[in-house]
Design a protein that fits this description.
The protein has about 325 residues and is mainly α. It has helices spanning about 5-35, 45-60, 65-85, 95-110, 120-125, 130, 140-165, 165-175, 180-185, 190-215, 225-245, 250-275, 280-320, and strands at about 115-120, 215-220. The chain has a domain at about 15-220. The mean pLDDT is about 90.
């Protein structure tokens, strides 16, 4: 097997651009998975919804930036559905997400005119820096895509950091940390869950809209497996965050590492494809990567506990010898 290292390096910029855009999606997953302590599976559908809304509005003549804003609103509505199913109808959170995801498949088909995919041509609509209303990102302009992705990621991180420092944001965090205590403090935990789910899915839809622009195509299945990619980005980012900040890092820094985790994930996937492994095995490799990084903190803790126990036993033996 002849592997050209230069070919691998030539793929890295595109992998970084896509990793940043998926890292934005991971920020949305982070809100539910870490802040609210909810496994929200609706993101697979919401990601596709963001893409479907974006591409259809661009085709209809809307500026790409406006299309993204409306896509975010569509994602927020999807998150509200998941939240209301969970809080008002008493359906478990994980099942509420599955129901919303299931329903969104049909909704996304209707948005795209009952077609499985829709294409918006870059040649026809151009780039934003060319006409002020074209695509914000594209696979044909990788450096610009990286710049725009980093800028949007920074804006989202700063906005979330400021929001979760407010009274309402702190109430959302308290709800995820200790619902019983939050309720005892007079916080309406049902409303906080709905709010968190809506915010999360809005960010996921933003990522879906950007990825659709990057690829130039919206597909009804584009979000399949998004939750796993989001979890992989979170776990990878957290492992590296704990590696660099052994004494702990604040909320904003941890969110930054989540985006960084998305980049590392896509670099790993690019290397796997460069090694000419079967693309059908990518989901298997993703599962392995997530499992490995999930196991790292546990194994590290087990090792430190074992060393501490061995140290205590050695000290006890020395005392007995004396």
């Amino acid at each position: 097997m002849n592997l050209n290292i230069l070919n691998l390096f030539s793929r890295m910029p595109s992998a970084c651009a896509q990793g940043i855009l998926w890292g934005l999606m991971a920020l949305g997953v982070y809100i539910t998975f870490r802040v609210l302590d909810i496994a929200d599976l609706s993101v697979d559908g919401t990601f596709a919804t963001g893409g479907a809304v974006t591409v259809m509005l661009i085709i209809a003549g809307f500026p790409a930036a406006v299309a993204l804003l409306i896509a975010i609103l569509a994602g927020i509505l999807a998150g509200l559905c998941t939240g209301l199913l969970h809080t008002k109808l008493g359906i478990p959170a994980i099942l509420s997400g599955i129901l919303t995801q299931f329903a969104l498949y049909s909704v996304n088909l209707h948005i795209m005119g009952m077609k499985a995919n829709q294409t918006a041509s870059l040649k026809k609509y151009g780039m934003f820096f060319e006409n002020g209303k074209g695509f914000l990102v594209s696979s044909r302009y990788i450096p610009a895509a990286i710049g725009v992705g980093l800028l949007l990621a920074l804006v989202v991180i700063l906005a979330l950091y400021r929001y979760f420092g407010t009274e309402q944001g702190s109430a959302v965090r308290a709800t995820g940390s200790n619902p019983a205590m939050a309720s005892a403090q007079g916080i309406n935990i049902a409303n906080m869950k709905v709010l968190g789910l809506a915010l999360s899915n809005g960010i996921v839809a933003l990522s879906g809209g950007l990825m659709t622009q990057f690829q130039g195509t919206a597909d009804v299945n584009i979000g399949r497996g998004a939750i796993v990619i989001g979890l992989a980005s979170i776990i990878i980012g957290e492992v590296f965050c704990d590696l660099f900040f052994r004494k702990g890092a604040n909320f904003g820094v941890r969110m930054g590492f989540v985006v960084f985790g998305g980049v590392l994930y896509y670099i790993a996937m690019t290397v796997i494809l460069w090694l000419r492994m079967d693309p059908n095995d990518l989901k298997l490799f993703t599962a392995i990567i997530v499992a490995v990084f999930l196991a790292v903190p546990y194994l590290k803790n087990q090792a430190s506990t074992s060393f501490a126990r061995a140290g205590k036993q050695a000290a006890a033996l020395k005392r007995e010898e004396k």
